[in-house]
Amino acid sequence: MSVNKATVAGVEVSTDHWINGKRVSSAKRFTNISPVDGSVLCEVAAGGKAEVDMAVEAARKAFPAWAALGPKGRLPILKKFAEGIRARVNELAAVETMDNGSLLVGNVMRVAPRAAQNIEFFAEWALTLEGHSIDSPEVVNHVHYDPAGVAALITPWNAPLMLTTWKVGPALAAGNTVVVKPPEWAPLTCSLMADIAHAAGVPAGVLNVVQGIGEEAGDALVNHPDVDRISFTGSTDTAKIIGQAAARSITPMSAELGGKSPFIVCADADLDAAAQTVAAQYMNAGQVCLAGTRVMVEKSIEAPFLEKVRGAAAHMVVGDPRDKDTRVGPLIHKEHFERVAGFVERAKADGAVPLWGGNRANFGELYFEPTLFANVDPKLEIAQREVFGPVLTWQSFSDDDEVIALANGTDYGLAGTLFSKNEKRAMAIADKVTAGTLWVNCFFIRDLAAPFGGARSSGIGREGGTWSFDFYSDIKNISVRKGSFA
Ligand code: ADP
Fold first, then answer.
1. Per-residue model confidence as pLDDT tens digits over 337-370
2. 184 given a catalytic annotation
3. Residues 275, 140: one domain?
4. Is the residue at 447 inside a domain?
5. For residue 335, what are the domain limits?
């Protein structure tokens, strides 16, 4: 057992890998800095090919016994895993906040409980997959969801606990074993998750965590010949690299990627609710792939609606994410701050006009002001590329065809939000907007049973409910001739 640990927000966290039911160290380490205050949190093991090989081998060895348990055998262990997460919600939330700067209140109320749900929900859903058959004239088709094998799970820093459990839950429930590569800018809650899984009785080798840099540990993992599934959440550029590795071995890959989602406000909308929801796009400093960052407002209400958004945005207090009044915390990393600031500077140079914000916030090194750009030509970089910061654009439209074209006018298709009280009109627009998820008169509500993913450059495939099991299983049809058995 290694002794590499850190105490973060009063919680002891291992900074090593978790491989085959043991802590494994690496001589090479990377520095993990908190975006909240710039403090050094710890030095984390930087895995590479050797650690990935060990983890995949352990996962392969553990696979037959875990698969053989079946959904009913796995259920009590996974339920205990979920209970273990619930018992440590406050600790997980506090560590996540220090690690990635996300709002503590949100982590306590929503993110950490959701992590438990992710494990429990899919463990229960797996029971519903047994016993399906399709009757044909000559045969009965028995549909089996066979576990696929070893799943490589790669997650991003903006919501590591939520997104890791969103993959670990269905992958384990379907009978796979997993190797997780957590994000190097926020690696700690995945480490805690491994301890919780172990304490719940998840057998050695079933869940492995290899810490490290994307281009090293992540690259070794997606190129490993004994990986049967790759599930990735992150940037479109990284997905293109991972996709090449997946293509070489024809390994099925699921990818949830970036977005530049439209936020459409019709003149007949509940404007107060819409304005509050526009302002909410600044939460977590806009580091939310689903954020509706392109606000599109019907011309007839443009001026009064802008004032409502201005009022709502004034409540988006920038500050320490541990403070309950804070709505906008820090950007994750200096490198990312420079990236966001670069987008803003280029937007200004391109002629876009900040109606508010546009600068570093008067709080700390990595904090950026909530920003709204007007005078935005749809072709500008600021209207086309994902910023992943508290930066929105404002555009107006005169009719539904115009807003549909505007909404669909990027390479992305992750999500969209639409406010209108006119059902017929709302559903007609929603029908024509290209998106994996389109929220009407609401935002961010995600039922675990519903499909989730992105169209075009925003992703490959869907996860959630049955779709997760379609991905994490080898679906087999046992086609039996009727009356052929003695
Ligand atoms: P972001 O822009 O959100 O940081 P990335 O796509 O770079 O997104 O990172 C998401 C995850 O992908 C992280 O865990 C990162 O370490 C990992 N990653 C980055 N590059 C690679 C790569 N070449 N191969 C595998 N994983 C990678």
1. 999 999 999 999 999 999 999 999 999 999 999 9
2. no
3. no
4. no
5. 262-440
Distance (Å) from CA 168 to ligand 1 centroid = 17
160 lines ligand 1 (CB under 6 A): no
State yes or no: is 256 an active-site residue.
yes
Q: How many domains does the chain contain in total?
A: 2
Indicate which atom in ligand 1 lies nearest the CA of residue 213: 16
Q: Token pair of 190, please?
A: 């995945």
Tell me, using a 6 A CB cutoff, whether residue 332 lines ligand 1: no
Q: Distance (Å, rounded) from C-alpha 421 to C-alpha 400? A: 14
Measure 214 CA to ligand 1 centroid, in angstroms: 5
Residue nearest to atom 17 of ligand 1 (CA): 214
Dump the DSSP string for 209-235: E----IIIIIHHHHT-TT--EEEEES-
Residue range 410-436, pLDDT digits in tens: 999 999 999 999 999 999 999 999 999
C-alpha to C-alpha distance for 318 and 321, rounded to whole angstroms: 8
Task: Give per-residue pLDDT as tens, 187-209.
Answer: 999 999 999 999 999 999 999 99
- CATH number of the structural domain spanning residue 414: 3.40.309.10
Cβ atoms of residues 329 and 366 within 8 Å: no
Give the pLDDT score at 269: 98
State the Cα–Cα distance between residues 334 and 251, nearest whole angstrom. Answer: 35
Mutational pocket test of ligand 1: of 30, 102, 154, the residue with most ligand atoms within 8 Å of the beta carbon: 154
Q: Which of 147, 163, 165 is nearest to 155 (CA)?
A: 163
Q: Which atom of ligand 1 is nearest to the CA of 235?
A: 6
